[in-house]
Amino acid sequence: MERERRIEEIIQFIDENRESYASLAVCRRALERGLEAVDNHTIKRLEDRLQTVPEDEIAAYYYIIK
After folding, report:
1. Helix (H, G, I), strand (E, B), or coil: what is residue 31?
2. What local confidence, expressed as pLDDT, does residue 1 receive?
3. Cβ partners under 8 Å of residue 56, min gap 6
4. Integer Cα distance of 51 and 46 in angstroms
5. From the centroid of its chain, how far is CA 1?
6. Domain tally for the chain?
7. What domain range includes position 38?
8. pLDDT of 26-52, one tens digit each?
9. Distance CA 60, CA 39 (A)
10. What does 36-55 look like in DSSP terms, one character per residue?
11. Confidence class of residue 55 from pLDDT cuts 50, 70 and 90?
12. How far apart are CA 34 and CA 66, in angstroms?
């Protein structure tokens, strides 16, 4: 349950703050280093990716956005 709540908060933050450094940092770390911008497709990819990463990665992404 805690994991799902954190994932939801991460996705919500990134959706609401697409141009922030924190959003870009999380997306680059989770998806690809060369990512230039966060768009709807990126958020969907991130949401899918977060379902498969270890708990320590979720914690790291959560820390970045908080």
Report:
1. coil
2. 76
3. none
4. 9
5. 18
6. 1
7. 2-65
8. 999 999 999 999 999 999 999 999 999
9. 21
10. ----HHHHHHHHHHHTTS-H
11. very high
12. 23
